[in-house]
Write a structure and sequence with these properties.
2 domains, coenzyme a biosynthesis, nucleotide-binding, metal-binding, metal ion binding, Type_III_PanK
Length: 210
């Protein structure tokens, strides 16, 4: 079975326990040899796959208890297998959602780390830096490169700490493992959305065309 999580930058695949990625620009040339079960936040790709019988869209089968309007399928899938905790999907954007007793209480969206770095770069070439993964967010920076890293990371971590309290925090997405290091009660799980997709297929196999 092949699973695929389609974003705005990459399509991420899981097959036989191995994760691979394909740039969205190359996706239209992808010809699967077996059916692919997918979710997509990319409307252009979604439209492209609409009549392709090799691709099974799982979005119509996902459902969580929430009053949030317009909750994206990526966030729904990330929350689907979590009963209690804070779910952080740190990719092109950073989405944060709270689950309590299998009820989605709400959440928010931040620009992703790469998006923030690009914003700094657009201000001045002197602010074109790479993130310092070893930045000490408890000490004021003493050089510009660290100041940019601090300015990006500190607000994210502070806001998350305030929101999470003593709850478990589940991190996924490309920057999830990095952000998880700032939390004692963190669980870093790159497979989180895929686990939810697998859970859904198991629970609703009779409804889904397999």
């Amino acid at each position: 079975m092949t699973l695929c999580n389609i974003g705005n930058t990459n399509a991420t695949f899981l097959k036989d326990g191995v994760i691979t990625r394909l740039k969205i620009s190359d996706f239209k040339n992808y010809k699967p040899e077996e059916k692919v079960f997918f979710i997509s936040v990319n409307d252009e790709v979604l439209s492209f796959l609409k009549n392709n019988k090799m691709f099974i869209n799982l979005e119509p089968y996902f459902a969580i208890d929430t009053i949030y309007q317009g909750l994206g399928i990526d966030r729904i899938a990330a929350c689907y297998s979590i009963k209690n905790g804070v779910i952080v999907d740190a990719g092109s954007a950073i989405t944060v959602d709270i689950m309590a007793n299998s009820i989605h209480l709400g959440g928010y969206i931040l620009p992703g780390i790469s998006s923030m770095l690009n914003a700094y770069k657009s201000i001045s070439p002197r602010l074109d830096i790479t993130i310092n993964s070893q930045i000490d967010i408890d000490a004021l920076p003493q050089k510009t490169s660290d100041a940019v890293s601090y300015g990006i990371i500190k607000p994210i971590i502070t806001l998350l700490h305030k929101l999470a309290g003593d709850k478990k925090v589940y991190f996924t997405g490309g920057d999830g493992d990095f952000l998880s290091k700032f939390f004692k009660n963190a669980i870093s799980d790159k497979m989180l959305i895929f686990r939810s997709m697998q859970k859904l297929i198991t629970e609703k196999r009779d409804e889904i065309i397999c």
